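COURSE: Structural Biology Practicum
ASSIGNMENT: Worksheet 4, Part C
STUDENT ID: 0417
INSTRUCTIONS: Below are two proteins. For each, the amino acid sequence is given first, followed by its structure token string. Answer the questions at the end about the second protein only.

PROTEIN I
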Amino acid sequence: MFAVADLEGSKVSFKCTPDEFQELILIDGIAPAQYVARYHWITLHKANALRTSEVQRLIRDSYQMVFDKLPKKVKQKL
């Protein structure tokens, strides 16, 4: 799992690097994700907290971080 969104689409959570985590949680509308903040997950509570292109980049990076840690056999299946 690399990202999670609520059914209304008003919030989205995803993994980020430790450095980005520290920077992003200082922005209004972004908070540490409940239960998984210790793994550097954040939650966007406001759609306009970041530019769309920045959110897209962060979600792509989240996917890549999770993908990189998968076992080799699982990566080959994907």
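PROTEIN II
(use this one for the questions)
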Amino acid sequence: MTASRADVVRVARSYMLTPFHHMERQPGLALDCAGVVICVARELGLVPPDFDVPAYTPSPDGSMLEWCDRYMTRLARGSEQAGDVLVAAIDLDPQHLCILGDYKHGGLSIIHAASRRDGTGVVVETRLMYSRVLKFVAAYALPGVA
């Protein structure tokens, strides 16, 4: 099946305010950052309904990039656009997945399950701004997105 980039953004935005919970895949009830990407792909029929990523820890271990390289198409830096997936490093290690959106004031936004140090958080959309804390690692196209 195919979907448009606008479809990816629309579905990701429908998950806004879903509470953060590690390894959860329940839009509206509980998601983590990988869960946002996986559930968008499932809902749009881009992957089988049981598609998931193997168990992972809340601490980065390098497996996120391996998984992304296996199931998505890596893009050249600077070619990413709304509807693509961003892998970001928070502090040092690649550990965070985001759906890129079209920011209402121009440029790109990220739609992602943002967790706080206390383990709480929700799916939010914020302007994409790289910093010493949030660093670009890679961008990917979901399978079947045109």
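ANSWER KEY EXCERPT:
Q1: The beta strands are 25-26, 30-31, 73-75, 85-90, 93-102, 108-115, 121-127, 134-141.
Q2: The mean pLDDT is 92.
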